[in-house]
Structure formats: structure tokens, C-alpha cells
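This is your field. Have a critical look at the following sequence-structure pair:

***
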Amino acid sequence: MPVLLAIVGAITAVLYFVIRARNAADAAGDLIDMANDVRLAARRFGFRRNADIHPAESIEEPSIAIAGIASAFLELDDLPTSEQRSALTRSMGKTLNLSKQDADELAILGRWMASECGSPDAAISRLSRKLVRMAGQDVFTPLLSIVNATLTASSTSLNTQQKEALDDVKRAFRIT
């Protein structure tokens, strides 16, 4: 009987460690898939990262900067909900005339771009300045409509950080 209990205990211990190793492998696979999503989205929108300059300065498409600003703006109000993320994707697709798949990939790239800037505040100010240099005053209206559509979907009012971020965007666009 003690031998039987020892065998059952050994089998249980082996199964426990096998399951834990399998879960760790699944988590690593998810991280690789996430990095691959960002890489594919960047390639699709023609983004090329240069080793010696910040990724925000490498942007050549205004839509990437708009997506980064909108993603950073969402992150100023706690963690964005899935409802807010889907509203962001829908409003980008509608405003920028993108398909759902393109809008999803642009949202992924925008989130990555905002995270590369360090904080949401830094992302908004840096990407706003880059957007104005790249596309001029004409992109202020699409940017504002995307941010407004995202905010109305969440049915919350602007917090202090978001109001300051809008002031930063207005300064970058030289709007009083």
C-alpha cells in the first residue's frame, strides 16, 4: 500500500509540473503573438523603425500618429475598457476610411507607439507635434472627432489629465 501511494504521489507531482510548464509555454506564445501583431501592423502601414531615432520621429503616416494620440488619450482615464477600445477602432475606421481589419491593426500600432513614448502625457505631446509637422492643421478635425467618438461611447466626462492633454494638442496645433 505505501508503494502504491508513493507511485500515485510521484505521478501527481510530474503532472503538476508538466501542466505548469505547458501554461508557461502558452503565455510565452501569447507574448510572441502580440509582438508579431505589432510587427505586422507596422509593416502594413509602412512604418520603419530607425535605430538611432525615437519611433515617434520615424512616423510617415498621419494615421499612425492619430492612433497613438487617441490611444494615449484613452489611457489617461484609468485602464481603457474593451468597450472604449472597440469605440476607438470603430471611430478610426469611420473617420479615416479604413476597413475593420486595418482599423484594428492601426489601433495596435497606435497603442505600441504610445507606450514607446513612456507615458500617455509624453505620447500626446510628442505625437501631436509630429502630426502637425507632418500633415499641418488639416488633421485636427479628424483627430478631435476620433477622440470625441471614443469619449461618447464610454459616457464619462473629461478628467483633469484629459483636459490638460487637449490643451497640449491645441498648443501643438496653435489653436487658442
Observations:
- The mean pLDDT is 82.
- The chain has seven helices and no strands.
- Helices lie at 2-44, 62-75, 82-95, 100-116, 120-135, 140-154, 160-172.
